[in-house]
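To whoever is on call:

I kicked off a structure prediction for a single chain this morning and the downstream step that reads the tokens threw a length-mismatch warning. I double-checked the sequence; it's 306 residues and nothing unusual in it as far as I can see. Pasting both halves so you can look.
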Amino acid sequence: MVQRVETDNQGGAARAPGSDPPSSARPARSNDSEGRADLHSHTTHSDGALTPQELVQKARDAGLTALAITDHDNVGALDEAMEWGKSLGVEVIPGVELSVSLGEKDVHILAYFFDHKNQTLLEYLTFFRQERLKRAERIVEKLNKMNIPLTMEAVREQAGVGSVGRPHIANALLDEGLIESYHEAFERYIGMGGPAFEKKYQVNPIEAFRMITGAGGLSFLAHPGKYTTDMELSQLIKAGLDGIEVVHPSHDEKLQEHYRGVVNQYFLLESGGSDFHGGKKNDDHVFGLYTVPMHAVETMRSRLFS
């Protein structure tokens, strides 16, 4: 069993003890002749720095055949991105990133190929965004009690049209000159176990999987090597998980091999992507490198009709 270390998934990638750091991992770049897909990316509709059009254009420039936009609790970018993708020859796959709870831990789930106009799904996402805002308000209140003069107005300004999250708080702290770097926000204040940390609204994995299935989609565990144990992964598989994000910047080659073994053992699906955000995340170098071949996308698609 591969060991894990637990860390806040917004505050930076963790790695298995004794493994190479994620930056040294060999990108899983597939054969360009069959096309490549990045199945994990974010826009200004959550905590990404690029608009939907800008991100699709970036995918085109990187030579990608397909791109999944997986904003946190938000599908507002999809219509614009899909339309733009048609004009540029890039398939935009409907996606979203959700949080579910395993005990005291938040785990991220990527959903794909669902009906992004499904009313039940949209109602859930609206509720989740409202809970995100309440959480941000509690975090700012804690920071204020620590004599850190951050305002919710500054946080909302960072979020723009997107759902509010801790990255917006980190960006606001940085822009206000209250910290020296983006990652300092998580390390000192708002990361898991930090003095201003606040839990998310808890969602049962089974409930989330049913919602995604009800909207016609597939459920994948996002970046398990960052902070998910194999025992927790087993719980999610039993709850109805469809696949695992094997390729991710935080997964070195050893971890990729491990998760491919799990995928094969349990007849799951494989996904992968750059988890690109842009902006102060300084992750531009990962875009276009962490991809899966288009046959993985077609396998996902075929599972929907099997």
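Update from on-call: the warning came from a stale cache, not from the record. Cleared it. Sanity check on the structure: Strands lie at 36-38, 66-69, 91-102, 105-112, 218-221, 243-247, 269-272, 292-293.
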